[in-house]
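Feature request disguised as a bug report, sorry. It would help if multi-protein outputs had a clear separator. Right now it looks like this:
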Amino acid sequence: MTSQPSPPAIDAAERRRRASVVARWFSEHPFTIDLLMVAASTAFQVFALVVSEQRPLLPGVVMAMAASAPLLWRRRAPFVVLCTIASIGAVGALLSPGLGALSFPFAFALYSVAATRSFPRAALGYAIGVSLPAVSALGLLLVDGHAFSPRILDPFALIALSLGLAVKNSRQRQHSRAALVAQQMENARVSERNRITAEMHDVVAHSISIMIALADGASTGWEKHPERAAAALRNLGGVGRTALTDMRRILHVLRSNDADLAEALHHSGHNLPALDELVDVFRSAGLPVNLIRAGNPIPDDPSLATTIYRITQEALTNALRYAVGATRVDVRLEFEHTEISLTVTDDGHAPATGAPSQGSGRGLQGIAERAAAYDGTSTSERLPAGGWRTAATLRVTDESSTDPS
């Protein structure tokens, strides 16, 4: 006897897709849902009357229909609908003492209030639903001595109240999660835009400063040193082309989708020249730069190399702008254990008081942010004997450091 193959199980993705289709249908047909709720409320209440052998049945059916009809407006005014249904139930108890409570319409109305309004409002609605029949009972007792006991703890109403509160709490959690995700995405966008701003500043500020220095040198030395002036102009064109390439690269990142922005920007600067080439560019602009390396070799990490390059570039750009009469600019790069120390020191003096500033103030902030990304710090200060020093420390993990042995 061979066993029949079991039908393939529906995977989780298919179940989620079907649930999404059902949820979308419910959200797109609210009036149809309300009609079904009215029909279900009426049917349940009539069934309860039949089971309880209510006689005559017709008044009970009419009251069930009258109490269920206001549910069509439960989305717009749930609390008003609840009070209306409770009032109809109280009037029905006065007209027909044996009718019993309209538990099901009231339960549907109480669910709507609990799912869309505050808990105090839902509790008040429950109190109204059980107190109005009690008032009717008291009136009948005083008028003709007919006594009946309204239910203070209606099980259907309590279940509806619990379900409504659970649904509201679930919606609030979903909204909170959605708001949290939206905030995290917005924070990520702002962070990436700030990183792009720093990248743009590095490209534009550095390149324009170099180009100004080269152009000034070429114009002043054209007659006495034509060879140097020609070399400066050639370097000027090279710097301009490099700046244009960098600008196009960054603008390409800006045009990318947000989902790919962090990864694109993470790799955008790793095609930078070597640190020695950067120093040569500043030398050609007239800045007497000396590159000093000490300690262990720098770990082969593109992100780390980009950070070191950009910090050095910003510090040298500031020296080119503000170190008037500098005869020596030392760039010292040292790596010991897990700490990289980068120091740029010049012996120039500050520009004359009142001279217009050439910077935006973003450069030193960018240095601090890049150092902080590697759990480091940065300082920038004028030296007592004259000159300026910009220093940054970067901390790398043991796995990234090079073993000196």
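(second protein starts here, but nothing in the output says so)
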Amino acid sequence: MLTIRGLRKSFPGTEPRLLFEDLDFDLAAGEFVAVMGESGSGKSTLLNLIAGLDRADAGSIHFEGAVIGRMSDDERAAFRRRFLGFVFQAFHLLPYLTVADNVALPLLLAGIAAAERMQRSGDMLSRVGLAHRVASYPHELSGGEMQRVAIARALVHSPKLLLADEPTGNLDAGHASEVLALLRSEVRARGSACVLVTHSATAAQTADRIYALSPAGLQNPSA
């Protein structure tokens, strides 16, 4: 599903800082992998590159044969709407929309009718334990609740590729375990795939494979 070859990214400046280079990675449908690394190592940047939100200095990213770096801005936006679910570390919930409408937003962008949007949004909120919050607004939620809304939004349109940036960072141990189980079950049931970026060794242990990100690229210590 996803093939990365020779990826290089650095931060520009008077003294550019290399994040990583010669990064190779393959991800098949149904796989759930974790990427760990020190703060500032480029884990979130890697997800942004895969999503087409940022551009690499060198290398290529292929998703089901399409080269993301060769897409126009409009093509990359369409790619994200159709194929990606992204759980952002900072949530990025829209404050003027209810919880239900925030979760339904990917369905709205996909042209799904209102009745179906609300049905699917409500079903997904039930799955993350927030059925009682459908009419609430983001400012009325705790950090953990906002995290679960963000996860519901990422899953509601059944994406082929899920990119999760610290999805359990604001959750207690019980809810973190439930969310990780939900992510895994969705990946398995839909034949999609997930790249999980995390600082948590406990969260990473739920993955099929664990990679460590460094300037030399991605290493799988257990390989």
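Even a blank line would do. Unrelated, but nice: The domain at 2-219 is CATH 3.40.50.300 (Rossmann fold).
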